[in-house]
């Protein structure tokens, strides 16, 4: 806080003010609420402590030795909450204010590991959460002069997805988008039962890809989108955000160049990410006939396409725009150099694991 504003606050309170940073857990141990918000207060032996602002699991507090009436505390609480908002200079709508409040609560829960928390009744936006909403996590970075405002992004999303779409800011450049699942049945060629079928995942992937194209086409910059199956956000939004964040993280780690990430396709990556680096490196070295095999971009792209096509030779050749015999030649070359035949199930599983481990080990 600037010196003049700090003096103004001390004059307003009629007492000396000090500031410090603490964790949400420390705040709770001292008698504060489990999910602190700007303006919350606790009585201390030597005065009163107010929450100035929150940032995940960390909070900034003001300590003062002054004594306050209930009315004074309420006025100060309102002032701090007004100052704490990330609203644009022109002010925010009620919906944006409610969405930012929900987003801050979600981040607090995720940072604190409380992923099973349900949206509390005090959240005004809870009344607009219903069973059957598609969760999208959008992470994007644009040039400062091209970054969308909340209202601009919300308007674009309502036009692209649905009028019932909710936009919830999480952190800078990170947004949670909740859209009604009826969109899946409204997709061209889909039927009313698609939400409950495996085909639904294909539709979700298509929606996520379209969302990515819409955002990058409108504002440019790097953009990543993850999508999950429909949820009841009032019950599981925190858990869903944690899963979608992990999905983007693993996708960027294991699949460079991919911008749309699907949680049902990264089970193996989630398992492998928990293996210590030393174990990963040793395993790759011991199992490969040639350690530099994956240094060849053609080999890596061929294997990536082969596995994405469920090891189907004909479909892989079409995906790579090469003749079937050319693909067979490449696969035979891998067999000769690595001693592993990816047309065999056991060897295909092993090569898939080796390729993923090599990618993440190489980038360390």
UniProtKB/TrEMBL annotation:
It holds the Pfam family HTH_30. It comes from the Bacteria. Residues 300-356 form the PucR C-terminal helix-turn-helix domain. This is PucR family transcriptional regulator. It comes from Cohnella candidum.
């Amino acid at each position: 806080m600037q010196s003049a504003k700090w003096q103004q606050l001390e004059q307003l309170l009629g007492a000396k003010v000090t500031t410090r940073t603490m964790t949400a857990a420390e705040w709770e141990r001292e008698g504060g609420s489990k999910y602190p918000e700007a303006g919350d207060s606790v009585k201390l032996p030597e005065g009163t402590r107010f929450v100035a602002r929150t940032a995940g699991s960390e909070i900034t507090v003001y300590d003062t030795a002054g004594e306050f009436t209930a009315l004074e505390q309420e006025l100060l609480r309102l002032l701090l909450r007004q100052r704490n908002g990330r609203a644009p200079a022109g002010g925010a709508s009620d919906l944006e204010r409610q969405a930012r409040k929900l987003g801050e609560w979600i981040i607090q829960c995720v940072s604190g590991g409380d992923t099973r928390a349900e949206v509390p009744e005090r959240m005004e936006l809870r009344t607009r959460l219903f069973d059957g909403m598609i969760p999208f996590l959008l992470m994007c970075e644009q040039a400062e002069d091209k970054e969308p405002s909340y209202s601009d992004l919300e308007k674009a999303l309502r036009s692209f997805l649905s009028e019932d779409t909710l936009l919830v800011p999480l952190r800078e450049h990170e947004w949670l988008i909740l859209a009604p699942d009826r969109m899946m049945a409204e997709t061209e060629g889909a039927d009313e039962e698609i939400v409950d079928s495996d085909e639904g995942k294909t539709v979700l992937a298509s929606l996520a890809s379209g969302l990515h194209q819409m955002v990058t086409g409108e504002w440019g910059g790097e953009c990543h989108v993850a999508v999950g199956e429909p949820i009841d956000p009032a019950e599981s939004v925190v858990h869903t955000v944690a899963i979608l964040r992990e999905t983007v993280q693993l996708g960027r780690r294991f699949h460079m160049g991919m911008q749309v990430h699907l949680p049902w396709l990264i089970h193996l990556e989630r398992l492998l990410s928990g293996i210590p680096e030393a174990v990963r490196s040793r395993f790759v070295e011991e199992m490969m006939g040639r350690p530099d095999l994956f240094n060849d971009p053609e080999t890596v792209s061929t294997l990536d396409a082969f596995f994405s096509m469920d090891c189907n030779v004909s479909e892989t050749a079409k995906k790579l725009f090469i003749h079937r015999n050319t693909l067979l030649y490449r696969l035979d070359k891998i067999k000769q150099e690595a001693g592993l035949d990816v047309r065999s199930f056991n060897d295909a599983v092993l090569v898939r694991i080796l390729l993923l481990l090599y990618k993440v080990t190489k980038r360390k």
